[in-house]
## 1
Amino acid sequence: MTSAISIQNVSKTYKTGFSALKAINLDIENGEIFALLGPNGAGKTTLISLICGIVTKTSGSIKVAGHDINSDYRAARKLIGLVPQELSLPIFETVWSTVKFSRALFGKPRDDAKLEAILKQLSLFDKKDAKINSLSGGMKRRVLIAKALAHEPSILFLDEPSAGVDVELRKDMWNVMRKLAEDGTTIILTTHYIEEAEMMADRVGVINKGEIILVEDKKVLMEKLGQKQLIVSLEEPLDRLPTKIAKLGFNLMQSGKKLSYQYDSKKEKPDIAKLITGLSAAQIAVADLSTQQSSLEDIFLDLVKK
Amino acid sequence: MNLVGTYAIFAFEMQRFFRTLMQSLIAPVISTALYFVVFGSAIGKQMTEIEGISYGSFIVPGMIMLALLGQSISNASFGIYFPKFSGTIFEYLSAPVSAFEMVIGFVGAAAVKSILIGVVILMTSYLFVPVKIMHPIWMIGFLLLTAITFSLFGFIIGLLADGFDRLQIIPLLVVTPLTFLGGSFYSIKVLPEFWQTVSYFNPVVYLISGFRWAFYEVSDVSLNIALSMTTGFLLLSLLGVWWIFHTGYKIKN
């Protein structure tokens, strides 16, 4: 089966010489929720804009359900709905007329019942005759989602859906996304909120400085989160790790003043008493004990720093 | 071809016009009436007939052209500039709509609007002076050709403009002077020979001459030249639009 989106060796260099994306390779599978995580300016929006036809790529190829976005752009674009980051809306129009316009622009025949269902799902139906400039920011964001869904796309892009949105609305939006995913829509969202990726995504891709540095199943990523580290600070630095201690599972840290012990907090409870007894048997004096847990944030920051 | 999408763009643009129907149509009616008062009644009395046509009647085609050019350019340039300015252009670019279909939607709407205004001015003229249209088919032909050409030209201005003030520069500094000096209110034959020669470099002269010929069979240049020059401008504008979309210049970076 062809991927929902297949990106091969795609790069983008702006006229200013700024290289926004460097040889990106990425496949997004049908029906998954994929979170593209990265700091500001990492190239998230550029990548989405390339796929949707708003920015032209410098090289490489992009296919949407097997349709090349250049040679077969109509077929490719019909499948895609885009919710941009900016609240770009025709402010003098009513909600209903702009959503109707979006559907027609994508060449779909008029279907008021369908649009009504979309607006109801987004709790917008009672605002359908309101002018867009009279709506709040959160409402405007929903109108953008309604516009993107108006032509019933099978792939939905959400660029920073949580930017400037309150907790309540964010949760509402997550529910809408989950509902869409259950109905088989492929969802790609960009975010710099790790919590959002954690809550929503099936897979997470980390992008930084125009490069995808990690693509991982969220569950695998979460397992890495389960890793805990016991750190033992020593009174006296060690030159080398005694064999007995190494057998217990300790590692000597760089300075020689600390020992570390890795364990998976979800699977095992370490027998700390045994470890300490082992240390005192080897006549190693302990100054302090601490535990550390790596979070997605740590993994992320660690990756991004490199 | 995405006919539904093309029509959606067209209808959306027309909607704005009809929403402000009163000001869209009353403004040209008032300015036409003013021209008749100033040029027709006040100054026109001092003027002799031009090639057997009373001055008031003579200026009717010129006034329609004046409005047609201005309206075509401003409608089309604003129509495409506004989505660029507000960011809503992302939707057009990400839709399964070709550049050609976008041009038909935007330029078509701008041309239809300015033709409607031209027709309103023509009807207003009937209230003030006798108007005769000897070649209605040619008249409609020139009306269409000019409206489309200058809507395309306006579309180019809107695509290239970097700010609202930029939208006005070319209409104010180039098009308005050329229209006034292009024989809207006089026959260039009344000019000294040197200025007549200069006038032949003014493209608007050909538009107005051809259009006026369709009314009264009087013209500063031959019909064939007028027609080929007008068609030439149309092709030039088309080429400009094609180049912009082809290269993505100022739309896609």
## 2
Amino acid sequence: MIELANAAFTYGGEEILTDLNLRLAPGSFHFLTGPSGSGKTTLLRLCYMELLATHGQVNSFGVDVATMSRDQVALARRRIGIVHQDCQFLDHLSVAENIALPLEVSGRDASAEVGNLNELLAWVGLDRRAEAKPAQLSGGERQRAALARAVIMSPDVIIADEPTGNIDWEMALRLLQLLVELNKMGKTILIATHDLNLIRNAKKQVAARVLRIHKCKLQLAGADL
Amino acid sequence: MNGLLRVIGGILVGDANADRVVPPSGFTAWLTTFTAGAMAFLAVFALALSLATGRLADRWSAELARTATVRISAPEGQMAAQEKAVLKVLTTTPGIKSARVMTDAEQRKLLEPWFGPDLPLDSLPIPKLIEVVERGSGPDIEGLRLRLAAEAPGAIYDDHTRWRRPLINAAARLRLLAAFSIGLIAFSTAAMITLAANAALAANATVISVLRLVGARDTYIARAFVRRFTVRAFGGALVGTILAVIGVFMLPSPAADGAFLSGLGFNGWGWGLPFVIPPLSAIVAFWATRRAAFRTLRGLS
């Protein structure tokens, strides 16, 4: 799916990440941990092609990202669902319209997929908030809406950056449950988080692999969890 | 051709989804509409000036080309004989429609601006003038001059080339300036719309970023901006053109006083010409916005 081979990222002469080797196999579940500023978000951005590796190679669905055209990047992103910590909604659109946005930009008729959209809204518990504006949602609701938007295209990979960072524990568990369900449906999951309790909880349900960024490098960090 | 028709169709019909994802932006909307309107207004006047100058150049050229003057400077005793000889030569020369000796009153009127109304024409050695009207392509000037030199040594044939050339050159330059002004107006419109488009793109950076992250292609994102700016430019230019055409229509008629400025306007089919400006403004806006949008998008990941 997504593979990093000796990838590195340097910004302004400063090494942010180096010697990154990672393969997100189909159906795998990965957690990415590390202190704030360690480069978790940068690594995720490399995975969803918002940044280009300054050294090494990043392959997305078998294609070297460095050789991709902008259109190819756009098409590849339709196979990756992204959940940001700050959600990134279009505030002038309703929750339902925001969730349906990936369908619309890909040229699919969102109105023909109303059934799927309603199912999705019910799945994330937002069926009664469909017409609300993003600003009217609570933190947990926003995260669930972001997850719904990330999965509406039935992507192969779901990448979430601190998805439980701004929500309470109960809501975090609910969100985790949704991600676990997606993984059981065969989706590849990569979550950046510093919440060890969330990781422990997930490991009870799925065979999650835990990675840690330490001194700009990626390490396996499963034993102490 | 099909591609062009698809683009025009896309702009006219629009893409409701692409339009909706970008929030409406009041400031750039007004700036674009106003700029397009003001520029179209100016362009109509530049066009009117260009056409009027062209007409003027043609008229001057045609009027002066059809007439000539023979000037006879001879001693008192020989004037009548030379006048008669010149008239004989002229009436027998192919390409000359008519020739007539100007009366003293006519000559006095010609000299009035310089010497006043009380010019003692009889006491001054003023040359005799014969007005010649040419026919078709006119006479063989060199042959005619040689014949005049032989029959009436004091006669000089003046076909007005000396006067005509600077007037026509001036009119041609004025026309060129008007055309250059239209070019400048088009360039300024493109520059202003590019600035407005850049402002709109910068104001919607978050929207663009979100759209890219959910898999939108550059063409999808650009389309929303391009269509808006094209439609706004067309609307603004149409209003500006209509107002300017009304303004030109209300100028005094050229028949009233015959002055140059009152001749500023359109004739016949020329009244339809200003209405080419709104579609041209739309084309300028289309390319300016498209270029600005793709340049901005290339800068984003």
## 3
Amino acid sequence: MTTAIGRRTHPLWFLLPAYALLLVFFVLPTAYQFVYAFTDWSGFKASINPVGVDNLTQLASDGTLFRALRITVVYAVLVAIFQNVFGFGLAVLLERDTALNRIARTFFLIPVLMSALAVGYVFQALLKGTGALADTTWTLPVVALIHAWKWMGLAMLIYLAGLKTIPLDLLEAARLDGASRWHSFWRVRAPLLAPAVTFNVATALLGSMNGFDIVQATTGGGPARTTELLNIFIYRTFGQGLFAQATTMSLVLFLLVALMAFPVIVLLRRREEVL
Amino acid sequence: MRRLVGATGALLLAIGLTACTDPGAEPTTGDTGAVTWNDPAAKLDGVKLTVWAAQNSNTVPQQVIEGFQRATGASVQVVTIPDPYEQGVQTKVATGDKPDLAFWQPTASMLTAINAKTNLQPLTGAPWLGALDPALKDITGLLDGTRYAALVTSPAVEGVYYNKQVLAANGVTTPPKTFDALVDLARTLKGKGVTPFYEMGADRWATQWWVQVQLADAAKAGLWDRINTGQEKFTDTTVLNAVTRYDSLIKEGLFNKDIKTATFEDQGTALLAGKAAMVVQVNSFFGQLQAKADTATLNEKIGFFPIAPSGNVGTVIPDQSNALVAFRTGDDKREAAARQLLAYWMGPGYPDFVAGRNTVSLETAVANPAGVPQALLDVHAAVAGSAGSMQALAVANPDLYLNLADMIAGTMTPAQVTEATQKQFEQLAKAAGHLK
């Protein structure tokens, strides 16, 4: 609402449809999470009554929630690491604009566009009988690798964009000052990728906290529930008709993602500011 | 302008609030007791009915529906709800979506889970009840004395499917009479280098049958009533001992070596090929065998006997493909038509239905088709004297099988299995209004 022109060319109420959608599909469901988590809403009866923090205390007393949370956090951290290492490696490898590199980049981007369920089922079929999806310790890293494989193309793209925006005169100056290629890469170019790192780490970490599809399709949470992410647990609980308990769990996940998002982003942003 | 935005926002919020209240929260119309039943062939031109079915039951009603459409002029559409079926149906019903009829597990726990009193039509005084075999009439489909489900095929029974040729080759001609004798037989077989039992640890769901058949006598003596009312727990000796015994039989090496990774599919292949002598399973397992071999082969190779600690007692577990429920949709005409379809199915349409499905008849006046495999006849014979399963008698159905599969994978002890099962049972039972 700064200038008269701004007001005339963009009437504020043009935003209303967008905000209405946002309200109905994002704000309301989130707000309702805070309501239904404290009720006894279930598939078994028609009435919904407030029950206070019963659902929370009951979930806290049951080890399953904490196990699912631990599995989810481990999964998210593994995905964040794998996805960024692969993405960064690919970006550096395919940085130069040769015809071969362009084709290769396209191919690495294909998994990003594929359906997550399709990716899960393909890997399930590929790994069947190898024992890779039957080990109670190593299956979680395996599904994290699959998740990272699917999304590494996107990380690559963002790192590529970061590499391309580094001013050439900076690199020239470094070379004139006698920096080796190794030195100028790690001391000049890598630090300038900080904004790309922030974006990639944050999206990989927080995106995989909400992971469901790939793991559900690959292992369904098995073996022995060692890959049962919180979302799979929520899905299972919801399917049993325990809607309030499932809502309480998604509330816990929502709060956890929010709690992790702020420090992660603040920390990474601070790194950017140093530049 | 700001006020306009504020007002619109508040309005939208208010609309959202009213729109998002529980759609399942319709007033429970009390059972009036009098349910009217149309003539099965009465004209229903222009009436459209929807039947929900699972991937493994969507072809069951095909023939009946064709006959019903011809006889009445109604149009009936079968909609397949993807697996896991029960989860999908519950979610849809909770959000206000209802079919006219659906395949549904007719047990008390699952009728509770779909909130039968609010969502389902009572089938009181159904015209086909008199035609049913008296031993089967009230075996399932009832919740607190009201009938909500129509049993259309013989309910599944937990028991032992065995490879006749493997047992015969090892000099066994009569099946064991008790659970202990079954274990003794297994040890003898193992001594001769045969894999006695085959279990599917990777697909998990069959693991619970091993515990349940051991509980058959206790079930007859009221185990599930005591568990339902909190007088007994899964963690008490009855259930814990059954779980512990299962675990010790596995550790003793009486099962297939790949028990942790074996699937449902592997189980069927192994029993047919004689790679294992016996499998504790339910009817859907035989369905898998039927997909792999013809009736003659099955009659030659596969036998069935029920088992319990005290003798050859089966444990009955009606499943989703055995029965249908009719929903309260609020449209009287469609509700009556849905009841009429059931009356047609179990009435004039029944002989064609059992012949077409090649399945055991539940009605005394309708003979079994000639092509029903012997094992299925044996399974059906076990229904009458059977004990109830956890699914049939408990008010809630915890994931015992998941915990047992974890035990097989080595991440849970028998005590932890019963503890986790009890906890989940209490949670579900409380949500359903039991175990206050």
